[in-house]
Amino acid sequence: MIPATSSVAVRERLRIAIHKSGRLAEPARALLAACGLVWRESSDRLFCFGETWPIDLLLVRDDDIPGLLADGVCDLGIVGRNVLREGPAAPRPGPRAAREWRPLGFGRCRLMLAIAQDDDWSDPSQLAGCRIATSHPTLLAAWLAENGVSAEVVTLSGSVEIALRLGKADAICDLVSSGATLAANLLRPVAVVLDSEAVLAGPAMPFGDARGELASMLLRRLDSVLQVRDSRLLICQAARAALPGLLRLLSDAEAPTITTIEGTTDRLAVQALCRGAVGWQRLEELRLAGAQGLMVLPVERMLA
Ligand code: PRP
Ligand code: ZN
Description:
Elements: E1 14-19, H1 25-34, E2 39-41, E3 47-50, E4 55-60, H2 65-70, E5 76-80, H3 81-86, E6 99-103, E7 109-116, E8 131-134, H4 137-146, E9 152-155, E10 171-176, H5 180-184, E11 187-196, E12 198-202, H6 210-229, E13 232-239, H7 243-249, E14 257-260, E15 267-274, H8 280-288, E16 292-298
Parallel strand pairs: 1-4, 1-5, 8-9, 8-10
Antiparallel strand pairs: 2-3, 3-4, 5-12, 6-12, 7-10, 7-11, 13-15, 13-16, 14-15
The chain binds 1-O-pyrophosphono-5-O-phosphono-alpha-D-ribofuranose and zinc ion.
């Protein structure tokens, strides 16, 4: 049984670090709220006390999250994969380094190498001897080593995209989402260092106390929310002979429920939980294959 929120000692409360501002802040809170968590916010808006469950939020700078996890100040974090893999600014020894527990499907971007728009590009070897500006020195150094390139890594804390214009670098390695920042700075992306998105990060070892049960419950709900987010329930009717064709078009649905319609021998009702999009195109194909009375419904909750 999970303990009631007010009767739990401080270290038995689970503490999740999330961004206090920026692109991941709102989606992260919305995701946790969808898991049934409700908070009371402190007046400085840096701490949220869990009211429905003993799960609190700490609102912090994104770059601080790996360090807070490594130091055990926070138990879990929602952070970009790029930040998690880059690790704390000052690396800590020991087993505490956080792992990726779940990809969360939002905040997608890429850490990319970019060069001036009019420079030619053949392959990574041409970066040999170049100065590359980045705020991800660890990830860049690993990529350079992997590609056997010896280049100088120039670490900047922000505004990486203007490093070329300032004469501080010959190339940059920065996050690209829409590509607008690169285009505005007359740069072009040439190689992917890391595909990133928001992830739930947590310790490699299980918690040895009440936090373990809280984390399991949270994961269960999170998995359900993530699964539901892209799921649609499709309902239709068809003649029995049409069934094989329909099932081919519903290959992403797990074991559709098929029942014979009362008073008939060859009329079926089909109910299928589809994992992907069910757009007009697919509905037209299903109709041509014999489906009638097609209906697509969003799924609100699911618990295995
Ligand atoms: C990131 C990144 C680029 C920009 C890329 O910065 O460093 O500057 O987003 O996005 P785009 O491809 O859609 O233009 P962010 O806005 O997160 O702020 P920061 O540079 O201050 O970290
Ligand atoms: Zn930026």
